[in-house]
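Weekly puzzle thread! Below is a chain. First person to post its structure in token form gets bragging rights.
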Amino acid sequence: MTDKLSKTLAPRVGPYFLALLLFAVVTFVLRRWDVALVELLIAAALAVWTIFSVRRQRLEAARYLDELLGGVDKAARDSALNCPLPLVMFRPDTGEVVWSNERFLRVAGGPDRVFDTDLAQLVPGFDSRWLLEGKTACPDEITLYGRRYLVFGSVTRPTGGEKFTPIAATYWLDVTDLADTRDIYHATRPVAAILLLDNYEDVIKNQAENVRSYMLSEISQRITAWTDPAAGMLCQLDRDRYLFLFEEQYLEKFKARKFSLLESIREVENPSGIPATMSIGVGVDGDSLGELYRFANLSVEMALSRGGDQAVIKSRADFQFFGGRGKETERRTKVKNRVMASAMAELMADASRVLVMGHKSPDMDALGAAVGVCAIARMKEVPHYILTPAGPSPADELYRRVGEMPQYKDVLVDHDRAMALLDPQSLLVVVDTNRPEQVMDEELLRSSARVAVIDHHRRAATYIEGAALNLYEPYASSACELVSELIGILMEPTDLLPGEAEAMMAGLMLDTKNFTMRTGPRTFEAAAMLRRAGGDTGRVRKMFQTNLTDAVEKYGIIQNARMYGSGVAIAVSDHTVGRVIAAQAADELLNIAGVGTSFVLYPEEGRVVVSARSVSDTNVQVILEALGGGGNAGAAGAQISGRTLDEVRSELTAVLDSYFDKGDSGPQTG
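Winning reply:
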């Protein structure tokens, strides 16, 4: 370094000496030997003087650098020795301690010496991989002798290259008081919960006064017993609604016990054998009590839209779901139907046109419900359109039949036409899905000012927000059933075209598997209304016929099925199959003795598609929700990107193990 600095600072005198020598040579050639000799003597004297000057300059530069570097080294040594923080130097690859200051010795318990000691012996559980990864801060707090530390450090490699072992220097910052204060703050933050008795009317109505008093007293006692350990504030807001305020430190205990109040309330039954059920909505992580209460209300609404009998936690980030394993029970509310029908009629009356779309790759239920909405719009004399998919779909045959109807000649439109028709007064009706990422056209959804949603699937953590009308009925068999009820209120059955009735009947038969699954009184009422409107069941049955190739494909999937646990069949196809074929295979597996739940997996365009069915108490919607899917308790699906078929199968079996072993699927976070 000294030579480089001296050379940099030394004057460049070489050209001058060359000029003097040149003059001397010229003078000698001109025979002026005396002048030439003088010039040579002067050049020699200057050369000697320059050499001594450069040497002296080098010595002074070397002395200056020695003083400077020596001061830096001394400052570094003094800084390490007198560092106000605990400091330890070690080899990050072996953990061997090289040196530490006195403060670290006290932190480590005051050993006499730490040299040649493994750091893991002094600090159990300490992992130094973050240093080798180039990070300057340990990702986790380190607890040592009851104190909590944040650790910072870096790795240096001594001069000499790879043959010298790197040395890590770490500084330990005691944050015990700060961390304890932070933990106390989080533990004592308020939490708001709303406890709602789902089926108050069904359980209490038509019961003798003494029975009603006994049941209400029993429910109240169970709620009180569940809330007392939290030492919170419980107050009854209405006959079926309670407000519970408590500290956040007790929330983890409620979650660990899977909100045991849900099971406890189900043990209360009326003389008719109807159990009481409760929904719990919890609001956390709010900036104020008002925001916590709003979160709790949103959680209760989410729980009810998913069928009730479950707990939902809402924070600023997402939802968490607990329970909800049971099948939905039908709650007949004709008043609600009339309110929804009236709201739909008002929205259509104010709309310039009505556009309807279902989910991606729409099936007969989605298209049938869309046709029913268009029937209502036609009676209201509002222009109406149905969005068609860009590619093939399971409902292609029904699309063809609908397109052949004279009244639907210009109703089926593609994306470009739909976007051109859209204006601020248009009403977009989304049917058979409530998740924005699953709609047929997300751009159309984002561009619409007014949206109505009609769906029978349980609401997921992501759902269409800000809709002008939300008709969520998870107990319903299909979206066609819900639309049929609206038609029954707003129209006469004779106003429905036979082709429209058959389209809706096809959707009804698809989701009920020919009225063998998820049926209730309202399902058959809807079917009867569609039959009176001119729906021909024979023509509808022909839509479900499959060709020989598809039949062979379906039974090939069934042949690959394997039992997993008790009553669960999993069939994996190593090649792409049609979604209709996969769904039919899942349905067909349920006809096998001993199979109550079925899963069919197959690859499709870089993702894995799962189709699930259940006729047992197993809730496939809860299971597939853990994989990012959704649906109903008896029928659900998922599309999983970025993972292989084997990986998805392993994830599915892990979720099944958790579902059956723990008695609850645990939280599903959205």
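Puzzle host: Confirmed. Bonus trivia for everyone else. The longest strand covers residues 147-156.
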